[in-house]
Amino acid sequence: MKRLLTFVLVVVVAFGVIVWSSPGLLHSTKLGLDLKGGFEILYEAQPLTEGGTVTKESLKETAKSLEKRANKTGVSEPEVTTEGSNRIRVKIAGVSDPEAVRAIMKKPAELEFRSASGCEADAGYCKVELLGSDFVEGAAKVVYNSLNEPLIQIEVKDKEKFAEISTRLVGKNLAIYLDDDMLSDPVVQQALTDGTATISGQRTIAEAKELADVINLGALPLSLTEKYSQSVGATLGQKSLEETALAGIVASIVILLFMLVFYRLPGFIACICLLVFVWVLLAVFWMMNATLTLPGIAAFILGIGIAVDTNIITAERIKDEIRNGKSISSALRSGNKNSFRTVIDAHITNIIVGAVLYFIGQGTVKGFAVVHLASIIINIATNLFLARFFLQLVVKSGRFNKPSYYGVKESEIRAL
Amino acid sequence: MRYKWKDFNFVKAARPVFIGAIVLVLAGILSLSLFGLNYGIDFKSGSSVDISVSKPIDKAKVEEFLNGEEFGKYTFTSGEERVSIRFEAALTEAQQTKLESDFKEKFDESAAFEINIVDVEIAKEQELNALYGILIASVGIVIYVAIRFEWRFAISAVASLLFVAFMVITIFSLFRLEVNLPFILAILTIIGYSINDTVVIFDRIRENLRFAKLKTDSDLTEVVNKSISQTLTRSINTVVTVAFAAACLFAFGSEALKMFSLAMLLGLLIGAASSIFIASPLWHLLRRKAKPHKPKPQTAP
What we know:
With about 425 residues, chain A is α+β, with helices and mostly antiparallel strands.
C-alpha cells in the first residue's frame, strides 16, 4: 500500500510540475527561423585589402561585430557562429524586414578615430582623423606599463600624418568608433612621431584585449559574400509550426492509446514516462537555450519512436516471462534485467551515430545531431530508469497480480 | 493480441529475399546511373522559392511574369496554396528582393515566401559532408557491435543498414522525388532506427546462443528463427507506432517536412523488414560458414 501511495504521489507531483510549467516552457522555447520566419546566411569572408589573409582572430572579431550589428537592429537573439577557416553563419529568427538587416550585416566593419576639432559645441566628435585602413594590420596588441596596467599599443602606416594629428590634438580627446559606436575616447598626452602610440585607461585586461581586437578588425576589414541563404516568411513559418504540432498531437494520442490498450499496466506507466520524456526534453532545450528547428523536430520524432520502442521492449519482455510461468514480480525482475541490456546496446549505437554527425555535420545535420543525442540520453533516464522505478513500485504493492494487467491471457501461460 | 509466427522459417525465407535484395540493389544502381537523383538546390546550387498564397493563382500569368523577370532558367510547379519555383542560378540579394516585391504586387499581397539560395561550392560540400558522416558512423557502429557482440553481427548490421539507406535513395531516384537536406536527415533517422531495430534482434540471438547447443546447421537455424519470432511482436508494434507518427507527419505536417516524412516512412518499413529478412539471415550465413572451426561459445558480457 505504501508503495502504491508513493507511486501515486510521485506521479501526481510530476504531472503537477508538468502542467504548471508547460505553458511557460512552451512559450519560452526558442523557435528557429524555419518555424517563425527569419533568415540564415552562410558568409564567406575575404580580406577587403589585397594580399591580406583571413586569420582566426579577424574572423572571430568580424562575427562579433556582426552580432552587435544584428542586436542593434532590434532582432531577438541572433546566432552568429564561425565555421572552418573563413566562414560565418548567421541565424536570425523573427525579423520583420530581413532585407534591411541583411544590408547592415554585409557592410564591412568601419573603424574611425575622430576628434572634436572644428566641431560645434554639442556635435561631439565629428571630424574623422584616422580610418581603420590607416593602421598596420594585426599590430594592435596589449602591453603593460610599469604599474602592470594594461595598455593597447597601436601602429599606424603613415608616421607623418599621425604626428600631425597627435601634435594638433595634444590634451584633447581622440575617440575610437566602430560602426558609429564609440568604444573609448582617450586623451592625447603628447605628440607621437614614431608612428606608434599606447592607449591607456582600460580597466581590465579583457577590456584592453577587446579594444585591440577591434582595432585589428578595423585595420583588416573582411568582405562577406553570401554562400547560402535561407529565408522564411513569418506566416509561412507559423503555418509550418501549426501543421507540425497538429501532426505531433494526433500521433502522440494514438501512440499513447496503443500502448495503453496493448500493454495495460506497463503501457499506462509507459504513457506517464513518455509524457515526462517530452517534458524533460523541452526543459533541457530551454536550459541549453537551444533553438527548436525543423531538423530538431525530425530528431524529436525519432526520439519519441525510440522511446516508445524502449517501453515496448520492456513490456514485451515482461509478458514473455509471465507467459513462461514466472510470478509477476520475478517476471518483472528478469524482464527488466534482460531488456536493459538490449536497450542500452541499441542506445549506445545510436549515440555513436549522433556523436559522429555532431562532430562532422554542419548546419542542419548538426542541429539534428544535438537533439538526437539529447533525446537518447533523456530516454535512458525516463523510459528506462524511471519506468522501471514506477513498475517496481506498482508491482511490489501486490495489488496488480493478475496477468491480464500485463496484457497476458491466462491461457497463454505455460506451466513450469 | 500476439503475432503467431512460431514455426515460420525466417532463415529459409531469406534465400529468395537475398536474391530479391540483390536484384533491387542492381536496379538501384541502374536507376541511379541512368537517372541520377532529382537534386534539390541544397546539393546542386541554385535558388528555390516557395510561395504560399492566399488565393488561387493563374499559372500562365506566373510563367509570363517569370519570363519577364529574366532570372535565368527555372522550373515551376503550382498547387492551390503553394507555388514552387526552382531557379538554376543562385539569385542575388537584389533579385530576391525584386522577385518578392514584384510577385506581391502582381499576384497576392499576403503571399509568404520561403527562399533558399545555395552556392555551388557549399552544395558540393554539404553532400560530401553528409556522406562522410554516414560512412564514419557506419565504421563506428561496426566497431561497437564487433566489441559488444562479434564481428559477424557488425557486418550484418551495417550491410542491412546500408541496404535500407540505398533502397530509400533508389525509390527517390525512381520516382524523381526531390533530394534536399531534409532527405539526408531522413536517411540519418532511418539509419538510427534501423540499427536500433537490428540490435534488438541480435541481442536476442546472442542471448539464445548462450543456452543453445549447436551441433548441426539446423540448430543454428533454429536459434535464429526462435530469436526473430520472439522479438517479432516488438518489431511489429514498434514499426507500427513509429510509422504511424511518420504518416501523421506526412499527412498533416508542414510542406517542408513532407519529403522527410515520406522517406522516413519508407525507410521504417524497409528497415524493419531488412532487420528480419536480411540482417539476421546474413549473420546466420556468415556464422554457418565458420562452423567447422567451432567458434568458442558466446559469453554474456
